[in-house]
Write a structure and sequence with these properties.
43% strand; 182 residues; 4 helices; mainly beta; six-stranded antiparallel sheet; globular
Length: 182
């Protein structure tokens, strides 16, 4: 598999990394929008809902041009924040995958805060993947289930994703969903 063949990796493992999707300047420009509340239609404080700790916001329309190109939500995590394993299944229609772009620089802006995926395989132990990302890298991942070829045919693997605890600093992520969420 080629180094940046994220579509093949997405099919094979339920996630694929898109290296260098955004440059440092683009990451900084999008990150700066987070402090402009008028740019957002809603803010979710995860602790209020039992989702973890930290917050995320949904951009209001019109979306910023670059975000419109990529698509949708912006997340921020600080020390002690995390996002419990979950699935983004909101509304009557759900697109089968989504993308998260790391806007912050690991080891400089924050420590910890690894992107984590689990695969709940039938009659087997769950598999956990920690996806290492650098600033500007994106990970495309299955939102709910993905098909896997087994010895007796194709079966479904349930996917969940989250973020491990941020130990220091602030971690910002641009989440791109391809359906309208609440």
């Amino acid at each position: 598999m080629a180094e940046n063949d994220w579509t093949a990796a997405l099919e094979a493992t339920g996630h694929g990394v898109i290296r260098g999707l955004l440059g440092a300047g683009e990451c900084g420009a999008i990150l700066a929008l987070y402090e402009q509340p008028e740019r957002f239609r809603s803010k979710v404080v995860m602790a209020k809902h039992g989702y973890g700790r930290g917050e995320y916001q949904y951009f209001a329309n019109p979306l910023p041009k670059r975000v419109l190109e990529l698509r949708r939500t912006l997340l921020r995590y600080g020390p002690g924040d995390f996002n419990c394993l979950h699935q983004d299944l909101y509304g009557p229609l759900v697109f089968p995958f989504q993308v998260a772009v790391l806007l912050s620089k690991p080891g400089v802006d924050f420590s910890g805060g690894e992107f984590v995926l689990t695969q709940q395989r039938p009659r087997m132990q769950s598999r956990v993947d920690v996806v290492p990302l650098e600033q500007g890298d994106a990970v495309a991942f299955a939102v709910n289930e993905r098909p896997v070829q087994g010895t007796r045919g194709i079966y479904r693997v349930r996917m969940r994703h989250g973020v491990s605890e941020v130990r220091s600093g602030k971690r910002h992520t641009l989440g791109i969903i391809f359906h309208d969420a609440a």
